[in-house]
Amino acid sequence: MITIFVVEDDPVWNQTVKDALVKAGYRVTSCHTLSDLWDSLADTRPNAIILDARLPDGSGFDALARIRKASPHSCILMLTGMVQSQFRIKGLLDGADCYLTKPVITDEILANLCALLRRTPQQQRQVQPLSLSIERQSLISPNVGDIPLTPQEYTVFRVMALQPLHPVSKNKLISSLGYQEYEYDNHRLETLMYRLRRKLKNIENELSIKAVYGKGYCISHPVQIIS
Fold first, then answer.
1. Which domain of life is it from (predicted)?
2. In the chain, is it the N or the C terminus that has fewer CB atoms within a 10 Å radius of its CB?
């Protein structure tokens, strides 16, 4: 599963961003200071870091070089209230991959994060090959072998696997199960996605299922469909 660090000292905003990322299918570590960040980096190299510019124990700008040295393959998205162009330029030149200014909606954060991860070649290299077997109706992982899916899990996963990285509408997923949208409420679909995410998490694969606001769900990497 893709891991994101959120480095933000405002506890409410930190939790808001974390909740949006978790709902989208990411694993999230919250850091409220640079000290928290250094401790977390000692144990984990995240796929991306969302970094505030002003933190209680230092500047996010000053931390960029150290972050790059400690975790060179992590995408860095700066998220700050410093809106002046000189700060945006400084952040990008000092090592940030993206610079967003507050106030910002979480959907914009997710969209920029998804774009950064999609453009980063090492994310693809970290993915362990995963296949979807039509005959067995299961996922096949080189690490743990067959991961059985229920008929409904198999059906919706196969629909998403046919168009990886692109959202599949909730209506299309519900139709694939043989229901009309009014017959199958969103809670049932969310529960189904939750079960699939748990199975993906258990096999420690970078592939994840993401919720795309207003558009549906998508899988983060291509999956080979075999007979």
1. Bacteria
2. C
